[in-house]
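Protocol step 6 of 9: fold each sequence in the batch and record its C-alpha cells directly after the sequence line. For illustration, a two-sequence batch is reproduced in full.

Sequence one:
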Amino acid sequence: MTKKSLNYLFSALLLSVFLNAQAGAETSIVKYIEVDGVIQPASSRYIQRALDEAIASDAEAFLIFLDTPGGLMESMRDIIKSILVSDVPVIVYVAPSGSRAGSAGVFITLSAHIAAMAPGTNIGAAHPVSMGMGQQDDTTGVMEDKILNDAVAFIRTIAEQKGRNANWAESAVRESASITETEALQKNVIDLIAPSTDSLFAMLDGWEVDMPDGPRILSFENVIPEEIPMTWRDQILNIISDPNIAYVLMLLGIYGLFFELYNPGAVVPGVIGGICLILAFFAFQTLPVNITGLLLILLAIILFILEIKVTSYGVLSIGGAISLILGSVMLIESPIPGLRISWGVILPGALATVAFFLVAIALSVKAQKRKPTTGAEGMTGETGVSIDEIAPHGSVKIRGEIWQAKTKKDAISATTPIVVISVDKMVLIVEEAPDQE
C-alpha cells in the first residue's frame, strides 16, 4: 500500500470517527417565543399555549424573549401560574438590546426558573394596573392600597421562592424602581447577562434549576431552538386587543348601524357594523375601559342623531363633537402607553365621525325640504297639455301619462298648456297655464 493510500485511509477513519461522534451526541430542543408588546389576554393565551406545547414535546427548556412596557394584572397572573407549575424550565430573556421588562414584565421575569438580560436593557416600574370596565375608577384610597399591597405580597413571594432580591422587587412595585441589567445582576434580581442567544445557551449548559420534581441539570451542548409561532386565532385576538384597533372598530360599528337605521333594508352596513361592534366590545373586556368615557361617546352619538330632528343651529353638533373627543380621551385610562388610545387615532376618528354625521344630517334636512314627487303633493304644480276640451271635465297629458281633469274656471280648449293646482281623489284640478315669455 502506497503512502498516499495510507493518508486517504487515515483521513477516512478520522472522518468516520467524527461523524459517529456527532451522530451519538445528544441534542437538546429549546422551544421559544417572542413577546414584544403589552401583556394582555392575547399574549397571555399565546404564552400559556406555547408553554403547554413545550411540555408536551418534552423540550429541554422554554425560552421567552421579552420586551414589554407592562400590562394587565390578571393576564400577568395567568402567565405566572403556568410558569410556576411548569414541568419544563422557563427562561425569560429580556432581549435584544434596548428591550425592557416593565410593570407586569418584572413579575414574569422574576417568576422564571432562569432570568437573563441582554446588555443595554432595563427592568422595573412594576406599579399595578387593573383590568376591566370601570375598575380603574376605584383605585383610590382603600381600594388602591388593597391592590398595591396585594401586588407587593405577590411579587415578594415570587422573588423569595426563586431566591431573588425580594426587597428590590417590593420597591419596584411601591416606588416604581427601575434598574439596568448590570444593577439587576449585582442586586440578585436576575441570574445572568448574555449578549446573544448562543452565549446564553453556552452559559446555561450544565446549569442546575429547581423544578417541582426536584433539581434538574440543563444540557445545551447541542441545542436546537424551535420557535412556536402565533396561531391565526392568537394573531386576530392580539390585533383587536390593541386599544387603537378597538376604538376604530367601535366607530365603524356605529357608522354601520347608523347607515342601516337611516336606510332600512341595506343589510350590508348593518351586518358589518354589528360585527365591528361585537369585536370592539370583546376587546374592551380585555382592556382597562373607563365607563364614563364610553357613556360620553354614546351621548355624542345621541346628540348627532337629535340634530336631525331638533333645530339647534349647530349647538347639538358642537356638543356631540366635544362629548366624542372627551369620551375618546377618557375611554381607556392607563399609565402604560400601549394601553392608551393614541391622539393620532382619536383626532382623525373624532373629526371623521363629526364629518360623517354632519353630512348625514345635511342630507336628511335636504330630503325633508325636497318637493314631493309622488302622491297628491307630487302632482301639484306639474304642467302638461289638455288632450280635449275641459268644460269642466276632460283629459290631460302630464309626464307622458293621461289623467282625468277638471277645471273650476273657464273652459280650457284642446292642446292648451295647463297646470295642476290640486288633486281631488284621482281627478286633477287644473287651470290654463300662464304664458311663458
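Sequence two, same batch, same settings:
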Amino acid sequence: MFDAKGFRRMFLCRVGTTLVLALLGIFLLAHCEVSGATQEVPRIGAVRISGSINPVVAEFVAEQLDRVNRENAAAFLIELDTPGGLDSAMRQIIKSLLGSEIPVVVFVSPSGARGASAGALITLAADFAVMAPGTNLGAAHPVAIGGGQKAPDEVMLSKVVEDAAAYARSLAARRGRNEIYAEKMVRESLSISAEEALKHGVIDLIAEDVPDLLQKLDGRTYRRGDQQKLLHSRDASVAVATMNWRQKILNVISDPNVAYMLLMLGLLGVFFEISQPGVILPGAVGAIALLLALFAFQTLPVNYVGILLILLALVLFVLEVKVMSFGMLTVGGMISMTLGSLMLFDEHSEPFLVLSRAVIASTVLVTTGFCVLVLYFVVRTQRRQFVSGREGMAGLIGQALTEVHHSGQVFVRGEYWTAFCGEPIAAGEAIEVVRLTEDMRLEVRRVVAHANERAANVTAGSDKEVGK
C-alpha cells in the first residue's frame, strides 16, 4: 500500500535539506565576495617631508620606501614641502625612488608649499609628479656647501652646475618630462607655479588634496622596465608613516640653530667643570651636548675655522681665572666667540642652512654673561681671606708674652704659641703672624701702634678669661 504520510515526510525533509544547502551556498558566496572586495582595496604607504632635506630625512624615506615595497603596496606617496637640502641626501632619496618596484608619487602640498632646490629634482624623479594649487617648483641652482672660507672658483662652480643640469635632464628624460624646463631650474634658478608646471609638462597633474589626488591617479600607467603597469588608487587607504624617536631627535638637532646652541651648551658645561672641578653634572651635560653637536655638524656646511675660534674663546675664558688680565682675556674671548659664530656656517650656503644673526647675538651675550658671572665668583673665592688652617693664621694680631727673637712665647687668637722673628721684639709688644711653619712655630713681626692697642685689648680679654 502507498504510505502517504511517509512520502510527505521524506519530501519535506529533502526540500528542507535543499533549502539549507542553498542558503549556506549563498552565505559562502557572499562572504567570498566581501573578502575579495576587502582584499582588493589598494594600500598606499606615505611620508610627509616638511623642512630641509638632510641625511636623517633621506634615511627615513629610503627605509619607508623599502618597507612599502616589501609589503607590495599599490604605491608610495611623498607629501613634499621643502626649501631644499643637501645634495648627498637628495641623491640618496632619488636612488631609492628610481629603484622602487612600486610607483612613487610626489605631491607638493598643501597650498603655499614649495618643492625648491633638492625638492624639485626629487619631484622630477617620481613616477607621478603632482602639485597642489598655489605651490611652486624649481630654484634648483647648486650652491657651495662645505667648510671652505670662500666660494668655489668659477671652474669648480661651472663643473657643479653642469653636473646638476645633466642630472636634472636625465631625470626628466627618464620620466618623460620637459627636459628644457628641468635644466632651466638648475641653470637659471627657474621657479614655476603649479599651473605653469602642468602646462609645460614638468608635472603630471594638479590636485587639491590627497583624496582628489587618488581619484585622478586611478587608471594611470607607469613603466617598469619594458612593461606598462596600471595604478589602481581609487578609494585607496593611505597609511602615513612617521619618524621614530631617534630619527626625530636627530632631525631636530640637524637644524643649524639647534646645533649651534648645543655646541655653546657643551662648551659652557666644559668651562664650568674646568673652573669648578668636581661638580660633575655640568661636565656630563656638556659632553653629551658636544657629541650631539658634532653629529649635527656632519650634515651641515661647517667652517672649521669658526669652531676653532669658538674653542679659543673658551680657552681665553678659562685663562681669565688663572691670569690677572683685568678683563682683557674676557673681552678677547667675547670677540673670538662672535667671529667664530659668524664664520661657523658657510655664508654661501642655502638660506635655511645659514645661522640666524639673532641666535648668534643672544647666545654670545648669554654665554659671555655666564662665563663672566662664573669668573666673578671664582676670583672672589680665590681672593677671600683664609679663616682656618695654616693659611688662616697669616695676618692675625697677637702679643709677645716674652722677648721674641730666635724663640719666644706669643699669645694669638686665645692660644699660646712658640714664635720667632728676624729682629728682637720686647715682651708686651704687638705682633703680627707672618706664617705657620711645618714644625708648628709662628714666624712673627712687629706691628704699628694701632695694632698695639688691639693687642692690648686681646691681652686684657685673655687675662679676664684666666681670672675666671
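Proceed to step 7 once all outputs are recorded. Observation for sequence two: Residues 39-245 form a domain with the 2-enoyl-CoA Hydratase; Chain A, domain 1 fold (CATH 3.90.226.10).
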